[in-house]
Amino acid sequence: MMESVRAQRLQPGVGTLRSLRPGVTGAPAAASAPPPPPAPPPAAVAAAPPLPAVPPPAGLGLGLGLGLPPPPPPLGLQGPAAPPPPGAGPPAVLREAVEAVVRSFAKHTQGYGRVNVVEALQEFWQMKQSRGADLKNGALVVYEMVPSNSPPYVCYVTLPGGSCFGSFQFCPTKAEARRSAAKIALMNSVFNEHPSRRITDEFIEKSVSEALASFNGNREEADNPNTGIGAFRFMLESNKGKSMLEFQELMTVFQLLHWNGSLKAMRERQCSRQEVLAHYSHRALDDDIRNQMAMDWVNREQNSPGALSRELASTERELDEARLAGKELRFHKEKKDILMLAAGQLGSMHSSNC
To answer: CA-CA distance, 101 to 120, in Å (whole number)?
Structure first.
């Protein structure tokens, strides 16, 4: 009985078991989250230099939920925080970086000549699987075109672990959009294999030290799993040996829980930080989580008409900015999919009432 109640308290839905702890408002936490700091400037890629271990910056939304600093960016090569003007295309340095990595990959795997990046990306992940990579859902790379009857066309690609990237150039054809998405995903996949992108003891110590400095904490906090910094250390140590992309995939779940207000609701239900970490560190993002969050947004829209459309417009802007900058997109993409699911549920409810 107690285990059943505990599982219900840890559900992602804001409205779940509201009677256990009155006062859960259901307001999304993202509204109060400060904007993220600008991304680091991209570096030139000539001979694939070692990528530095980037410590987590302070002040992103996740820290307001579990008290955790956010994860480090999955790649040290990213475009600027702001997108280029419409029609200007991606920053030249990002374009050159992507092309350099693709050429290098082609040289070392297929010899000189033109490389089919779509095939190369799929072969890369099949190679990883053949060498023992733990890919729970197989090695299939999945593409998704944004419906459009005219250019520019936009394509997203989801890698086997769940990381998502999108076409970052002006693409006059659907085939070009697919190739553009494959290029940026291949670059991230290749750089993710670099030893500097692994979570090691040295990386953990550096990240925790910088987090302590950012939050004006002390060393005792880092050793106490009941503090935010201690929980952050716990998550890093639990993922020792994993790559930055793998860690980002895990942290996406917590970012969504914070954005939806789920972490706040769990605190109101008296769930401890350790309970939440233990539960969601081993729970993949699934349709049950998406559906519960979508229902929360249905309730918000019913309580405050226009809330859903405003959040969707904001999310679409963030998604486009991140896509054009060549960043990992799963958090933004999942937000949009959840909001679109909520809009569909609202439409079905309205149709049934007519």
So the answer is: 12
Residue 210: other Cβ atoms inside 10 A: 17
Whether 27 shows a pLDDT value over 60: the answer reads no
Distance in angstroms between the alpha carbons of the first and the last residue of the chain: 41
Q: Which one, of 225, 240, 229, 227, lies nearest residue 278 by Cα? A: 225
Q: Write the pLDDT tens digit of every residue in 247-258.
A: 888 889 999 999
Amino acid code (one letter) for 65: G
Copy the structure tokens of residue 302. Answer: 């019913």
Q: Which two tokens stand for residue 87?
A: 């029609």
Quote the pTM value.
Answer: 0.74
CA distances in angstroms from 148 to 144, 154, 156, listed in the order given:
12, 8, 14
Query: Does residue 177 contact residue 157 with C-beta atoms inside 8 Å?
Result: no
